[in-house]
């Protein structure tokens, strides 16, 4: 009897922990904001986070990947269709099954804010939308070149920390997220999360205000730096995570100390309601789905009858189809240009003719009218 | 294989139904599947030592997308494209993504031509009321399906050709107001476009010829083009009923020197880093053709001939649906070795070039050269040019000359551009005299764009899409005019109406022009300079007006001060 009750309590505790995070789906918005070949490392950063997030279970339909330039099929890339994160071409983070939702010139501040707030034109396809609800945990990762209070998009525009904070507030007001993890890997990255004021946001940055984030290692065959230090060590940390691991956020805060990163990574948890020690990495990087087990049987309805195709079209239609002539020379030569519809003369022409008539009659007098009409 | 599985489940259902609920109706016969899938790969060694591989996957489906009840049961035809066809009332859709430029003089004619970048042309059904709005929505949906930035297609790069791009499928009515054509010459092709393209195939990339499509090898080539073509075709030679045809084509040219080899020796493994192990189980035919016309000493088991691009070619055929093709090792890898011919390659009959002439950033000239290499026959070509609005063409300078003399086109259609609204459209039907070069020149002026219209890298330049040259070229052998299903796919893409000539479409190079680019840091410089000038000027003026000046005695020196102190003590006036 005693054994039975103690098992009961443990069961209840385990069940309560399982439901404590409160989210039902996961989304990720991964943005690389830099253009040009020498910013290869920013694309590699974003793709390595994409790879980890996909590996831990978030499907492509729940990932919005924005890459501002194409490095894999760039003509300068000695190994086309690959983006490497480790030197000596050890790890190809581009892979074979990648779906980039926004690429090239589409990665702009406006599109990024529209994706976050959901205010997109009605014809935008589903893969380009962030269709999150109030039970979604969203991971937002930004990388590129930044400064104190801004992040540069494609060398032509910037997004400021105030705009970003306002966008997150819009998301909160519209109930577009349950919890949000914001990671940024740029120079002076901590300035970007200073202005957040919406609840349930946890933020990490690769460097403090006044510090530069440094790149990790160049590859001599490719000729550019492959990754930034913070994301490199974060990738190594995430490679050890599997969908069922219980590692929490405090371990993520310890990634890349000053000895490895040269800059001081920072984090901000005051807006987050739960204790970071109880937040699992897989709450944001993985896609944990709740499964309800039921013991009841469910009755399936009758199978749908196959629609009867109309078989009688062949007999009724006697017309024979034929292919169009690809270059009907005589038809083309005799193709008359379309006659423009006749429009009544517009105001200017009418005014001009009125003026001419007035001047004529003023000079020559009204008695000449009978000669005209 | 699939049919057998279906009948098994129906029998099982019948058994269960028989025991529990005798009054429910069970379909007694399984409906015959009306869709068919064929795949083929043609490998042609080229004269320059490169090798050309052309994949074609065709799905035929006898259904009606335009009826009121939506089609809901898809088997081989991909559902995403079927929904696009029925939602946007598409009659024909052709979309291609290409990396690289097809070098006609070195490689001959391709089976399926395509321009660099992305190209989309669509014929809509007569029932569409607002073609432009439907076109805009269609481009957005396709950009989501193919992961490409096709949403940049808008009215500034869409044209409505008046005589080119006649429908390749069935149809008697050709009202060009239902046709739209657009190109994006800057669009890149990479794995993210190949992945959704492969997912449209019935077997995906798991079985059949599609296992060879690995991105690391395909994009390491001189030319890579993948396309999707949807149209209606005849079901049989009588052509009383139609069916929908979906063709997915992929053309690649692998470079001899780029891949690091010296001998003209290629194998499937060297080209694709894979070998073939089985045909796609859903395919009714799966064939591999190797072009051996230039190397007739090859003796292999199965040979066949086909007339393609005006020439009769001999092919060695491997049928992948037969188990014997794969042998005991259960995989097929072919080695192709050929010697370079001492003689010249047969020159293609029609070939074109285009370039920009001139200097400076104000004016320029576009030259298009079309070569007719036939010794005694002349034939007509239809030239379609779509130039963006920021290159202002001076059409009064348009000149068409052949062999030094003026050659007046028999049909000219010109639609002038409107700034920021639509591009120039120039279509001309020109008769090319035999063995000649025809040059079309037109002068243009470059416009200055507004600040926000410049892309983030404006010094790269701005692209002008390829010109399209459509022509009926006389052929050396009689072409087949009836379309039967037994013909190999690569010879049945363009419909053929007469035996003496075949239709060919050529794309010229896209142009890259530099527009006068402002210095984007100037506003910052101007603000700093203006503020400094205003501060200095206003400050000085303010000081002059409001300050009053008093004369102040200079400070006396130390000796004088001490002397003054002594004099004051003595009571004497100071110095």
Automatic annotation (TrEMBL), chain A:
InterPro entries: GPI_transamidase, Peptidase_C13. GO terms for molecular function: GPI-anchor transamidase activity. The keyword Membrane applies. Pathway: Glycolipid biosynthesis; glycosylphosphatidylinositol-anchor biosynthesis. It holds the Pfam family Peptidase_C13. The chain crosses the membrane at residues 347-365. It comes from the Eukaryota. The keyword Acyltransferase does not apply. GO terms for biological process: attachment of GPI anchor to protein; GPI anchor biosynthetic process; proteolysis. The active site is at residues 145, 187. Keywords: GPI-anchor biosynthesis, Membrane, Signal, Transmembrane, Transmembrane helix. GO terms for cellular component: GPI-anchor transamidase complex. Heteropentamer. Part of the GPI-anchor transamidase complex, consisting of PIGK, PIGT, PIGS, PIGU and GAA1. Interacts with GPAA1. Interacts with PIGT; this interaction, via a disulfide link, stabilizes the expression of GAA1 and PIGK and links them to PIGS. Belongs to the peptidase C13 family. PANTHER family: GPI-ANCHOR TRANSAMIDASE. This is GPI-anchor transamidase. It comes from Astatotilapia calliptera (Eastern happy). The lineage of its organism: Eukaryota, Metazoa, Chordata, Craniata, Vertebrata. The gene is PIGK.
From TrEMBL, chain B:
This is Phosphatidylinositol glycan anchor biosynthesis, class T. InterPro entries: PIG-T (IPR007245). Pfam families: Gpi16. One of its GO terms (biological process) is attachment of GPI anchor to protein. It comes from Astatotilapia calliptera (Eastern happy). It comes from the Eukaryota. One of its GO terms (cellular component) is GPI-anchor transamidase complex.
């Amino acid at each position: 009897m005693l054994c039975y009750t103690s098992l009961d309590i443990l069961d209840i505790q385990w069940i309560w922990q399982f439901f404590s995070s409160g989210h039902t789906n996961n989304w990720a918005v991964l943005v690389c904001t830099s253009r040009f070949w020498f910013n290869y490392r920013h694309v590699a950063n974003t793709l390595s986070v994409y790879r980890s997030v996909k590996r831990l279970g978030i499907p492509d339909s729940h990932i919005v990947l924005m890459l501002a330039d194409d490095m894999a099929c760039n003509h300068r890339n000695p190994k086309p269709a690959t983006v490497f994160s480790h030197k000596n071409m050890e790890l190809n983070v581009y892979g074979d099954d990648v779906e980039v939702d926004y690429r090239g010139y589409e990665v702009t501040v406006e599109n990024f804010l529209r994706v976050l707030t959901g205010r997109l034109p009605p014809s935008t396809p589903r893969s380009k939308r962030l269709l999150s609800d109030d039970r979604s945990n969203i991971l937002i990762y930004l990388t590129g070149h930044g400064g104190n209070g801004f992040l540069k998009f494609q060398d032509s525009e910037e997004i400021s920390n105030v705009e970003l904070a306002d966008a997150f507030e819009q998301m909160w007001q519209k109930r577009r997220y349950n919890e949000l993890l914001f990671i940024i890997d740029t120079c002076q990255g901590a300035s970007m999360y200073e202005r957040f004021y919406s609840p349930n946001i946890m933020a990490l940055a690769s460097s403090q205000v006044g510090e530069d984030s440094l790149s990790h290692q160049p590859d001599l065959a490719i000729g550019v730096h492959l990754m930034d230090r913070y994301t490199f060590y974060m990738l190594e940390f995430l490679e050890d995570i599997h969908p069922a691991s219980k590692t929490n956020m405090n371990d993520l805060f310890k990634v890349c100390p000053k000895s490895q990163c040269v800059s001081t990574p920072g984090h901000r948890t005051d807006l987050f309601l739960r204790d970071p020690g109880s937040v699992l990495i897989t709450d944001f990087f993985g896609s944990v789905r709740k499964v309800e087990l039921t013991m009841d049987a469910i009755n399936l309805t009758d199978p749908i009858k196959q629609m009867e195709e109309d078989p009688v079209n062949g007999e009724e239609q006697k017309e024979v189809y034929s292919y169009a002539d690809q270059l009907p020379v005589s038809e083309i030569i005799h193709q008359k240009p379309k006659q423009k519809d006749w429009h009544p003369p517009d105001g200017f022409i009418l005014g001009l003719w009125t003026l001419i008539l007035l001047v004529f009659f003023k000079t020559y007098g009204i008695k000449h009218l009978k000669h005209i009409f | 294989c699939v049919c057998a599985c279906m009948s098994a489940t129906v029998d099982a259902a019948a058994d269960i139904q028989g025991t529990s609920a005798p009054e429910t109706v069970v379909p007694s016969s399984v409906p015959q599947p009306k869709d068919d899938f064929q795949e083929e790969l043609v490998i042609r060694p080229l004269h320059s030592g490169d090798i050309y591989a052309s994949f074609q996957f065709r799905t035929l489906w006898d259904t009606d997308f335009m009826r009121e009840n939506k089609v809901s049961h898809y088997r081989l035809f991909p559902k995403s494209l079927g929904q696009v066809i029925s939602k946007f009332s598409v009659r024909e859709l052709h979309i291609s993504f290409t990396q690289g430029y097809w070098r006609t003089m070195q490689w001959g004619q391709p089976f399926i031509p395509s321009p660099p970048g992305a190209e989309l042309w669509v014929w809509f059904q007569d029932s569409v009321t607002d073609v432009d709005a439907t076109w805009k929505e269609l481009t957005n949906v396709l950009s989501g399906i193919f992961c490409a930035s096709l949403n940049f297609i808008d009215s500034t790069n869409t044209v409505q050709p008046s005589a080119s791009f006649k429908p390749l499928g069935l149809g008697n009515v050709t009202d060009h107001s239902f046709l739209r054509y657009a190109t994006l010459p800057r669009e890149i092709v990479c794995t993210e476009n190949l992945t959704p393209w492969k997912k449209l195939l019935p077997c995906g990339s798991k079985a059949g010829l599609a296992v060879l499509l690995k991105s690391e090898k395909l994009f390491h080539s001189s030319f890579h083009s993948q396309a999707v073509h949807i149209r209606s075709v005849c079901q049989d030679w009588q052509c009383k009923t139609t069916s929908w045809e979906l063709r997915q084509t992929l053309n690649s040219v692998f470079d001899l020197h780029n891949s690091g080899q010296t001998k003209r020796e290629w194998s499937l493994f060297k080209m694709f880093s894979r070998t073939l192990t089985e045909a796609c189980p859903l395919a009714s035919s799966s064939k591999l053709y190797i072009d051996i016309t230039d190397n007739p000493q090859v003796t292999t088991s199965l040979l066949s001939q086909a007339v393609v691009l005006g020439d009769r070619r001999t092919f060695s055929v491997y049928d992948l649906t037969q188990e014997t093709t794969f042998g005991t090792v259960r995989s097929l890898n072919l080695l192709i070795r050929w010697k370079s011919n001492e003689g010249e390659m047969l020159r293609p009959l029609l070939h074109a070039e285009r370039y920009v002439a001139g200097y400076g950033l104000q004016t320029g000239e576009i030259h298009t050269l079309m070569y007719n290499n036939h010794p005694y026959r002349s034939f007509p070509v239809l030239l379609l040019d779509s130039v963006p609005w920021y290159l202002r063409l001076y059409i009064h300078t348009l000149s068409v000359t052949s062999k030094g003399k003026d050659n007046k086109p028999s049909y000219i259609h010109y639609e002038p551009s409107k700034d920021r609204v639509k591009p120039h459209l120039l279509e001309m039907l020109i008769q090319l005299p035999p063995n000649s070069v025809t040059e079309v020149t037109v002068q243009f002026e470059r416009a200055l764009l507004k600040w926000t219209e410049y892309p983030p890298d404006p010094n790269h330049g701005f692209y002008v899409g390829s010109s399209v040259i459509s022509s009926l070229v006389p052929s050396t052998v009689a072409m087949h005019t009836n379309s039967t299903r037994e013909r190999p796919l690569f010879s049945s893409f363009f419909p053929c109406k007469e035996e003496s000539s075949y239709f060919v479409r050529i794309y010229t190079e896209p142009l890259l022009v530099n527009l006068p680019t402002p210095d984007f840091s100037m506003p910052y410089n101007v603000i700093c300079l203006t503020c400094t000038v205003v501060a200095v000027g206003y400050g000085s003026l303010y000081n002059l007006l409001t300050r009053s000046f008093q004369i102040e005695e200079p400070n006396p020196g130390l000796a004088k001060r001490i002397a003054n102190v002594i004099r004051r003590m003595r009571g004497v006036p100071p110095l």
